[in-house]
């Protein structure tokens, strides 16, 4: 029922709407497609529709002004593509390569250059983002995330409400971790170098949920726990940058490196590969959930202390 | 660890909304005069100028440029070396070498937009080494205090620190304060890689004419038009692809370097600029390479000179 006619019409519409177009179709259309996908229970046909329709539909989002990406200034780069979303800097293959190499070197020399780590992630992401988006589309919760496109920012998360939650809940644990490490959710660079707007959102979501992975396992922001989280992200999500980040282990003290190799990496390998893909988790809807129950549901457990 | 990015950005002195000025339609090319230049009634529409490829109100260009240079000041010399692959040193050596400061006795020089002191240092070194001249003095003038601070720091490592040979002044090249910079005072006025950042080039040239002694030299080193099409294509590709990436990687600031390369494209061509110099009252050589200007590296940079009559 869902097969030929819908695919046909979607394909012809696709011809008239280049995939980089930001002409937003209404949220209703996306929601109706999502409902049909739910009912079709992940058959091959519905996945074809998903592939076709999601490239032309952009669900409306209510993005607070503070979160809208920087001005859609036209950048004169080697790539002739126009920007696909505000803040997009289209790069040619050569420029992408130069930035990948340069940001890798710079991030190694100065790991506090978060913008370089971000650029390395984006320039080397490649097909990882496609795989992750498809994984999100296969899970009902992930589809909801792609539809709502929630952003994580101090304006979208009510910190006081989280602080008032009972101990042992996920929300309380998150805000407790933020306070104890003295970080805010506001420090994430926007995505610049991913051409497809939806994949750019997946990348942005990964960057913003990175802190959630810290809080989920109670890992702090020092070099060693940071590498543990990166190792977990590699086995769970698959970004090449996270594996490259482990190259920074040469800068650790020998005792720390020993701990990383003997304890954190085995934990990451076992935990990350067996658990659910964490990008499909709608963290913001689970604040009241009990933390240990959340662990069990996701199939994760804390690293060795 | 990752929150340091905000702190780094804040300490670089720029916010993300630094380029918030409205961008209206661009002029078709740089040789067209400013739209409002010849109209008497300019009150209805704001006077605009170019800021890279954008068109911005004239009043805001100064602060936009200030933001750019506040942001690049601490890495300025490193970025110069990286983006020009060290060639800027050759250009500056040629620039000062051709001027031969100190050849006819001690000179009072003024180096405008000279923030980090590259030219001033070369002038003093040339006078000292070639002519054993320790009386030549250079006044380094820049509108941006951060750049002057970097220059002061560099001069502290040299023998000219705390001597009357060098002094630093914060001033606008378009309107040098008349009490401090008197008419007919200087023997040499230099401006290197600064004039394209000024809002009104004719005003800068007028002030240069004012403060120079009759018979003194005006010299300007600036990026210019490359006439060879092959070289121009390679240069454009390099400029627009590599330089902003170098800015992103080394300085964490793409926008400033995007502005810098766009402002190069907006600068007048060699004959046009030579005419502007003549309009300000200077006498120049013929309108050809080797006359009113000397192209360096095919026109990537160019030295324009004029003599005050």
UniProtKB/TrEMBL annotation, chain A:
Chief location bin: mitochondrion
Annotated signal sequence range: none
Reaction(s) catalysed (UniProt annotation): a 4-hydroxy-3-methoxy-5-(all-trans-polyprenyl)benzoate + H(+) = a 2-methoxy-6-(all-trans-polyprenyl)phenol + CO2
Entry keyword set: Lyase, Membrane, Metal-binding, Mitochondrion, Mitochondrion inner membrane, Ubiquinone biosynthesis, Zinc
GO cellular component, one term: extrinsic component of mitochondrial inner membrane
Required co-factors: Zn(2+)
Record's bilayer topology term: Peripheral membrane protein
Binding of Zn(2+), residues: 210-211, 214, 226
Domain of life: Eukaryota
Keyword Mitochondrion appears in the UniProt entry: yes
Protein family according to the UniProt entry: Belongs to the COQ4 family.
UniProt function note: Lyase that catalyzes the C1-decarboxylation of 4-hydroxy-3-methoxy-5-(all-trans-polyprenyl)benzoic acid into 2-methoxy-6-(all-trans-polyprenyl)phenol during ubiquinone biosynthesis.
Protein known as: 4-hydroxy-3-methoxy-5-polyprenylbenzoate decarboxylase
Record lineage: Eukaryota, Fungi, Dikarya, Basidiomycota, Agaricomycotina
Automatic annotation (TrEMBL), chain B:
InterPro entries: SAM-dependent_MTases_sf, UbiE/COQ5_MeTrFase, UbiE/COQ5_MeTrFase_CS
GO cellular component terms attached to this protein's record: extrinsic component of mitochondrial inner membrane
Domain of life: Eukaryota
Pathway participation: Cofactor biosynthesis; ubiquinone biosynthesis
Compartments reported by the entry: Mitochondrion inner membrane
Compositional bias segments (type: Polar residues): 28-39
Signal sequence segment: none
GO BP: any one term: methylation
UniProt enzyme class: transferase
Keywords noted in UniProt: Membrane, Methyltransferase, Mitochondrion, Mitochondrion inner membrane, S-adenosyl-L-methionine, Transferase, Ubiquinone, Ubiquinone biosynthesis
UniProt EC number: 2.1.1.201
Molecular-function GO terms, alphabetical: 2-methoxy-6-polyprenyl-1,4-benzoquinol methyltransferase activity
Role: Methyltransferase required for the conversion of 2-polyprenyl-6-methoxy-1,4-benzoquinol (DDMQH2) to 2-polyprenyl-3-methyl-6-methoxy-1,4-benzoquinol (DMQH2).
Subunit structure: Component of a multi-subunit COQ enzyme complex, composed of at least COQ3, COQ4, COQ5, COQ6, COQ7 and COQ9.
NCBIfam families named among the record's database cross-references: MenG_MenH_UbiE
Protein's recorded name: 2-methoxy-6-polyprenyl-1,4-benzoquinol methylase, mitochondrial
Underlying gene: COQ5
């Amino acid at each position: 029922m869902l097969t030929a006619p819908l695919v046909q019409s979607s394909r012809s519409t696709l011809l008239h709407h280049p995939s980089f177009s930001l002409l937003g179709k209404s949220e209703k259309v996306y929601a109706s497609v999502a409902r049909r996908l739910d009912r079709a229970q992940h058959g091959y046909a519905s996945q074809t529709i998903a592939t076709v329709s999601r490239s032309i539909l952009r669900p409306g989002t209510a993005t607070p002004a503070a979160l809208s990406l920087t001005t859609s200034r036209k950048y004169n780069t080697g790539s002739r593509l126009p920007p696909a979303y505000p803040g997009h800097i289209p790069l040619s293959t050569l420029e992408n390569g130069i930035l990948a190499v340069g940001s890798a070197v710079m991030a190694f020399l100065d790991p506090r250059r978060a913008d370089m780590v971000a650029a390395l992630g984006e320039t080397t992401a490649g097909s990882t983002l496609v795989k992750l988006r498809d994984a999100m589309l296969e899970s009902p919760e992930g589809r909801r995330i792609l539809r709502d496109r929630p952003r994580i920012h101090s304006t979208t998360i009510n910190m006081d409400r989280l602080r008032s939650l009972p101990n042992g809940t996920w929300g309380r644990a998150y805000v407790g971790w933020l306070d104890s490490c003295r970080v805010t959710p506001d420090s994430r660079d926007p995505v610049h170098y991913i051409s497809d707007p939806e994949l750019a959102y997946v990348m942005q979501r990964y960057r913003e949920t990175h802190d959630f992975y810290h809080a989920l396992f109670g890992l702090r922001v020092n070099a060693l726990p940071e590498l543990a989280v990166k190792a977990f992200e590699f086995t769970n999500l698959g970004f090449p940058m996270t594996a490259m980040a482990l190259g920074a282990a040469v800068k650790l003290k020998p005792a720390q490196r020993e701990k990383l190799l003997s304890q954190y990496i085995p934990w990451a390998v076992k935990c990350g590969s067996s658990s659910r893909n964490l990008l499909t988790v709608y963290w913001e809807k689970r604040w009241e959930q009990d933390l240990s129950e959340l662990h069990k549901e996701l199939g994760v457990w804390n690293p060795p202390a | 660890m990752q929150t340091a990015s905000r702190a780094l950005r804040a300490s670089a002195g720029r916010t993300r909304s630094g380029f918030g000025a409205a961008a209206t339609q661009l002029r078709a090319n740089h040789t067209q005069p400013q739209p409002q230049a010849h109209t008497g009634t300019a009150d209805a529409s704001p006077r605009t100028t170019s800021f890279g490829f954008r068109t911005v109100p004239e009043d805001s260009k100064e602060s936009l440029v200030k933001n750019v240079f506040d942001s690049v000041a601490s890495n300025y010399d490193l970025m110069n070396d990286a983006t020009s692959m060290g060639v800027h040193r050759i250009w500056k050596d040629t620039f000062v070498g051709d001027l031969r400061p100190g050849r006819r006795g001690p000179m009072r020089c003024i180096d405008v937009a000279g923030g980090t002191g590259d030219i001033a240092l070369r002038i003093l070194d040339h006078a000292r080494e070639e002519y054993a001249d320790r009386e030549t003095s250079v006044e380094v003038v820049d509108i941006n205090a951060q750049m002057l601070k970097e220059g002061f720091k560099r001069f502290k490592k040299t023998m000219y620190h705390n001597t009357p040979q060098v002094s630093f002044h914060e001033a606008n090249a378009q309107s040098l304060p008349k009490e401090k910079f008197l008419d007919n005072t200087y023997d040499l006025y230099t401006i290197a890689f600064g004039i394209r950042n000024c809002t009104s080039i004719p005003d800068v040239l007028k002030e240069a004419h004012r403060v120079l002694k009759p018979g003194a030299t005006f010299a300007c080193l600036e990026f210019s038009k490359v006439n060879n099409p092959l070289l121009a294509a390679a240069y454009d590709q390099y400029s627009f692809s590599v330089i902003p990436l170098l800015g992103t990687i080394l300085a964490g600031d793409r926008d400033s370097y995007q502005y810098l390369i766009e402002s190069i494209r907006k600068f007048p061509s060699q004959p046009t600029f030579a005419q502007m110099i003549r309009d300000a009252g200077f006498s120049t050589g013929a309108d050809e390479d080797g006359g009113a200007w000397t192209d360096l590296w095919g026109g990537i940079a160019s030295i324009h000179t004029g003599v005050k009559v």
